[in-house]
Amino acid sequence: MLFLLLCLLSLWFLLPWLRGPQAAPDRGGRNLTVLLWSWPFNKPLSLEGDVCWDMSGIPGCRLLSQRSLFSTADVVVFHSNELEKQRRALPFDLPRPQGQRWAWMSLEAPAATPDLRRYSNVFNMTVSYRRDADVTIPYGQLQPRETAAPTDAVPANKTFPVCWVVSNYQTRHRRSKVFQELKAVIPVQVYGRWSRKPLSAGALLPTISRCYFYLAFENAISKDYITEKLWRNAYLGGAVPVVLGPPLKDYQAVAPPRSFIHVDNFTSTRELALHLRQLAADQRRYREYFSWRRDWEVKLFTDWRPRLCAICSQFSRLPQHRVYASLHDW
């Protein structure tokens, strides 16, 4: 009897070895440790306390930035911008715990992203503004209002037909060409460093609120790349956005109907300009572009901490053994 008991105990202790190395258990979004390898743009934030619970209502999500705790992390997040500046920043020299996942994080369009071909077969997870990322972290989104807003929530101090805030003006950009053609038909008030009319943070939205339309023109044409130019400048500024960026379907996926005007819906810039002039002169039709505000409100994402917390909220549904063979092609 004693011999049989000893055999059973030996088998019990040997069983993990016989099964071979095991992946980290699926924690279902609980008790996860997320290590940020480098703060984006070298701007650290406090991680004291239960950050994810306090900021996002996500339990059991521990955020760290101390590299010395690498071995305790379930997920290690690498911000793309810092990878470019520190080409040897990936900790290949450290023993990587079994089941630890490495996440590539970026809010930049591909044109502003470093060459990713060197990172083939390195990352297990993508954290990006793209809707097909493993963890999607948009610049902004619409969420239902707790109580309906007044239906006449249209700023009444409109004095300019069209406004645009731009600092990075380059003639090769499509948006620059559209702007030049547009201002030949309808006045466009330009602000920002390029026009030598910079706006302070406090003056930005009040200035835009005086415009009927705002040019929410992205500096890159890329899938799902919809930035604060729409969410903050146009929507929060109280102007109807004229958008130029990804295809119409990408905007339709995140914004209500009749809340924006897409440049590609017109056969020419002149046709677009004439349409804007007609809308500004017809208050009933113009106000229809604000009807969505009755039931929806804008939520901006400007803090990196809730973005990191989102990893925990989506972790349980992600494939456990995924490796991106070509992050560049993704």
Automatic annotation (TrEMBL):
<protein>
    <recommendedName>
        <fullName>Fucosyltransferase</fullName>
        <ecNumber>2.4.1.-</ecNumber>
    </recommendedName>
</protein>
<keyword id="KW-0732">Signal</keyword>
<dbReference type="InterPro" id="IPR031481">
    <property type="entry name" value="Glyco_tran_10_N"/>
</dbReference>
<dbReference type="InterPro" id="IPR038577">
    <property type="entry name" value="GT10-like_C_sf"/>
</dbReference>
<feature type="domain" description="Fucosyltransferase C-terminal">
    <location>
        <begin position="157"/>
        <end position="330"/>
    </location>
</feature>
<keyword id="KW-0256">Endoplasmic reticulum</keyword>
<dbReference type="GO" id="GO:0046920">
    <property type="term" value="F:alpha-(1-&gt;3)-fucosyltransferase activity"/>
</dbReference>
<feature type="signal peptide">
    <location>
        <begin position="1"/>
        <end position="23"/>
    </location>
</feature>
<dbReference type="GO" id="GO:0032580">
    <property type="term" value="C:Golgi cisterna membrane"/>
</dbReference>
<keyword id="KW-0328">Glycosyltransferase</keyword>
<dbReference type="InterPro" id="IPR001503">
    <property type="entry name" value="Glyco_trans_10"/>
</dbReference>
<comment type="pathway">
    <text>Protein modification; protein glycosylation.</text>
</comment>
<dbReference type="Pfam" id="PF17039">
    <property type="entry name" value="Glyco_tran_10_N"/>
</dbReference>
<keyword id="KW-0472">Membrane</keyword>
<feature type="domain" description="Fucosyltransferase N-terminal">
    <location>
        <begin position="31"/>
        <end position="140"/>
    </location>
</feature>
<keyword id="KW-0325">Glycoprotein</keyword>
<keyword id="KW-0333">Golgi apparatus</keyword>
<dbReference type="Pfam" id="PF00852">
    <property type="entry name" value="Glyco_transf_10"/>
</dbReference>
<dbReference type="GO" id="GO:0046922">
    <property type="term" value="F:peptide-O-fucosyltransferase activity"/>
</dbReference>
<dbReference type="InterPro" id="IPR055270">
    <property type="entry name" value="Glyco_tran_10_C"/>
</dbReference>
<keyword id="KW-1133">Transmembrane helix</keyword>
<dbReference type="GO" id="GO:0005789">
    <property type="term" value="C:endoplasmic reticulum membrane"/>
</dbReference>
<keyword id="KW-0812">Transmembrane</keyword>
<keyword id="KW-0735">Signal-anchor</keyword>
<comment type="similarity">
    <text>Belongs to the glycosyltransferase 10 family.</text>
</comment>
<keyword id="KW-0808">Transferase</keyword>
<comment type="function">
    <text>Protein O-fucosyltransferase that specifically catalyzes O-fucosylation of serine or threonine residues in EMI domains of target proteins. Attaches fucose through an O-glycosidic linkage. O-fucosylation of EMI domain-containing proteins may be required for facilitating protein folding and secretion.</text>
</comment>
